Amino acid sequence: MKQIEINPVTRIEGHAKITVQLDDSGNVSDAHFHVMEIRGFEKFLEGAAVEEAPRITPRICGICQTAHHLAAAKATDTVFGLQPPEAAKKLRELMLLGQYIHSHALHFYFLGAPDLVLGPDSDPTQRNVIGIIKKDPELAKMAIKTRKVGQDITEVVGGKAIHPVTAVAGGQTKAMSAEERAKLLEATKNAIELIEKGVGVAKPLFEQYAEAIELLGPVETYFGGLTNNGNLEVYDGPMKIIDKAGNSVHEFQSSDYLDYIEEKVQPWSYLKFPYLKQTGFPDGNYRVGPLARLNIADNVPTEKAGALYGEFKDKFGIAQNTLLYHYARLIELMYAAERSMQLLEDDDIVSTEIRQFLSEPLMTRDEARQSSETKRGVGIIEAPRGSLIHDYETDAAGIITRANLVVATGQNNLSMDIGVRETAKALIKGEEVSEGIKNQLEMIIRAYDPCLSCATHAIGEDSPLLVDIHDSEGALLKRHLL
Length: 482
Fold this sequence. Notes:
Strand order of the largest sheet: 8-7-6-11
Radius of gyration: 22 Å
Distance between the termini: 29 Å
Largest sheet: 4 strands, mixed
Strand content: 15-25%
Helix content: 40-55%
Low-confidence stretches: none
Number of helices: 16
Mean pLDDT: 94
Number of strands: 16
CATH superfamily of the domain at 83-218 and 321-357: Cytochrome-c3 Hydrogenase, chain B
Shape: globular
């Protein structure tokens, strides 16, 4: 048996490879998406005060930092039994939308778009952000300006452009000034115009590559995401699961997620494989993220994004095609800018009533040692890549004793693996595989915008960490299982 290896998968956050196994006839017998890194943040959190989680977890990733900050804050709210004031919830949502603008603009224009603007078979030395800048400098400038708006929102609301700090148990620590509001409002209005121009460039590409959309990453799944009375939602609400036809099969509160979602490990990846517990593995495969959110939503409640959503639904219905994640991402980019403008036009956004405090102090560490009381908090938000779950258990003093993070990329892991395998079987016939075909396998992974540093945390006895030691010539000297 012979193997084709694509290592590394490029234009993603983190480190991964694809392997394709060929039988003696040159046909694909199997293929997998491998994630080889491990971060361990679930273990890092143990022993920390739970109120520190919103400051610790943004360090998981420099791209997804706001999502981890807010999921941790929501979980911490629950541990302490605190309810943030409405103004604080609006500030948190605005902060999250800032990350959507930053992350979606970065991914589509600079990580995903080179495959569409320059072509899947184009010269790999040009099929990147530099190639985009050379081919369409105005598009590149629009992308940079759009991304900056998202970073500016994060900096104002979150206190820092990277690794925000203002979301704490019970609300926010920083109110927005009238001057900051006016500045961001003007910026979001400009962003809407920039995104509209970008959509005008991108939409014809989905027609041009209609065949690739049908071919690459074929998989049919359930979909999951937060819901708000049928409206597209990013910050709050119950989690909803729909089947392949769009029918609702589950709807549950954040604290009950373990009744519906279970995780499995497989020998070829350090990234876990979540699935629907009541359906079983692998039939309970479900996806999250931009495509899932549009499939779940009945309505996108802003003008321009709502119109784009209507066109999308009329054309694709409950969309299963993997490359349509890019289309859905553009619609959400428009929604994020429009919804940010709505929040900034709301006078609540400059309210100073932004935090609820504890009415009684926590036990001391010494007192907690004499108590069997435990606390638990679960926070779910919609990160740009999909549903993000933070689950903390603490002792009576609020010290974390167990942490579980279920990250969006993990929830899409099985679909990425299946998509690679099925596409490899369709495209590869024999040992000679063109660079363009290899890139098309990478395109499947890029469509999900995976963040692998976010997604790989804890491992168990069934998934040991493998360390290979090679000499200067590349020969394997020793292998360790940790």
